[in-house]
Amino acid sequence: MSKMRFSSFVLALVVGWLCFFQVLLVSGDIGTATSYDPPYLPTRCKGFDKEQFPEGGLFVAACEGIWDNGAACGRRYRVRCISGLKRPCRDGSIVVQVVDVCRTSPCPATLALSNTAFDSISKYPTAKINIEYAQM
């Protein structure tokens, strides 16, 4: 009988751990993303400083809600495509850094991704996609 209790305990522990891990994986916000084209300079964060862009070219311009009057400069977000027309999503997620505020008002998306960043998560460069994003 004690072997049965131990097995039940282990099973409950594993199920609990999996549920907890699943919650961690989906703890982001939902929004939209588009790509935006160069020129990327000047930005509202650091003007004409080319050193502001993270290695690999994974950066974004944020909508006003995220921009927070410039407080978002340098923040990093994990971004994952979750849906869109014609199944645009690539597998996986990327980490991007905020370097600017959206240049159009109203902003067409929650995050405007650099072409490199957008191509990393979407098969179609002109798509508007639904994303999950979480500040890191």
From TrEMBL:
Superkingdom of origin organism: Eukaryota
Protein keywords: Signal
Pfam families the record matches: DPBB_1 (PF03330)
Matches recorded under CDD domains: DPBB_EG45-like (cd22269)
InterPro entries on file: Expansin/allergen_DPBB_dom, RlpA-like_DPBB, RlpA-like_sf
Domain Expansin-like EG45: 31-136
Signal sequence, renumbered to the chain: 1-28
PANTHER family: EG45-LIKE DOMAIN CONTAINING PROTEIN
Designated name of the protein: EG45-like domain containing protein
Organism: Actinidia chinensis var. chinensis (Chinese soft-hair kiwi)
Lineage of origin: Eukaryota, Viridiplantae, Streptophyta, Embryophyta, Tracheophyta
